Amino acid sequence: MRFLVLTLVSVSLGVVPVQLHSPAAAYGGATCAGLPVTIDLNDPDHPRVHRPRSDVVLGTPEGEWIGAGRGDDVVCAGGGNDFLIGSRGDDVLRGGPGTDGVSYRQSVRPVRVDLAVTRPQRTGVGVDTLVGVEEVSGSRTQPNDIRGNAERNRITGGDAADVLVGRGEDDYVSDWEQADAGNDDDDDLLRGGDGDDYLYAGGGDDLMYGGAGSDLLIADFGIDVLYGGSGVDILEAWGRATDSEPDRIDGGAEPDFLAAASGPQLYDGGPGSDIIDFAGFGFAGATIDLAVDGPQDTNVAGIDEFVSVEGVYGSSGPDTILGDDGPNFLSGEGGADEIDGRGGTDQCEVEPTDSVAGCEEFL
C-alpha cells in the first residue's frame, strides 16, 4: 500500500511543505463524482497541493492514504484498499472498488458517523458525505458514535467513551487501535448486529452485544457485561481480584464457549449446552463444581459463579471438576485430575492419570 499525504493534512505519515497555488482548470479531463479533477494522483506532473478553498482529488488504482484539505473537498479513491482522511470543511469522501475507509483519528472534536447514511451528515469535523466506505476510524481522544451499514465493516473507536455498532454482515468492532499508544479506560457500548462479528473492548466498564450470528467478544480489565445473543458465541472478559463487582458473561441462545479469566465473574450460559474453559491458566489447577448455587472459589480465576453451564475444560494442571445432576461434558485437559460427573448422563474426556467417577461415556 502506498501512502500519499497531501498538504494541510496533519498526520504522522508525513506532510508536504505548503505550496498553495491559485485555482486552475482540471488536468487531463479526469473527473471525480462528475466534477473536474484538480489534483490527479495518477499524474506525477500534476499539482499535489490543496488550494485554500476546495479541491477535487482522484486516487490511483493502488491502495493509499488520501487526505482532504481545509476546504470543502471531493475525494475519490481509486482501486485497491484506500483510507480517506477527513479534515476541516464539508467534504465528499467516496470509496472505490476495494475495501475503503475514512479516518477521523486526528479530530479534537467528538465524531459521529453513520455509514448507512449516504446524504450529507454532521460528523463533528464537518458536514461530510460518505459513499462506498466500509471502514471508519474515530477520534483517538474524543468520544465517537460510529455505526456501520449492511456491508462488512471495520469500526474503531479511541480512548474516550464510544458507541460502536456494526449492524449487518461480519463486522470488526473495537474501541482500541493497535497503532495507538494507550488503552481505552472509558466505558463503551459495542454492538455487533447480524453476522459473525468480532468485538473487542479495552479497559473501562463496557457493555457488549454480539447479536445474531456466531460472535467473538473480548473485554479487557473493568467491570464488563457481555451478551452473546443468538448463535454459537465465544466470550471472554478479564477482570481484577479487587473489582467490586463481577463481570457478567451471558452466552444467550445456542451452545456457547465461555473462556475463564481472572477476577470475579458471573458466567450464564443461557439456553443450549455451554462450556467454560480454564485452559488459559496453564498448570495452576482449577476447582469447579457445577452443582454449587452461588459464587465459588475456583482456585485460579477468583470467585466465580456458574449458571446454566453444562461443560468444563480444565487447566493443564491437577483440576477438580465436579458435574451436577444433569448431563455434563467434563475434560481435565492434562494433569492428574479428579473428575466426577455425578447425576445425569455425562461425557468425560480423561487421561490415565485421572481419578474418574460418575461418567457414562468416555471420549
From TrEMBL:
Record key words, sorted: Secreted
GO MF, one annotated term: calcium ion binding
Domain of life (superkingdom): Bacteria
Region annotation (Disordered) ranges: 331-355
GO CC terms in record: extracellular region
Chief place of localization: secreted
Keyword Transmembrane: no
Subcellular location: Secreted
Cross-referenced InterPro entries: Hemolysin-typ_Ca-bd_CS, Hemolysn_Ca-bd, RTX_toxin/Mannuronan_C5-epim, Serralysin-like_metalloprot_C
Matching Pfam families: HemolysinCabind
Alphabetical list of PANTHER family matching this protein: S-LAYER PROTEIN (PTHR38340:SF1)
Name of this protein: Calcium-binding protein
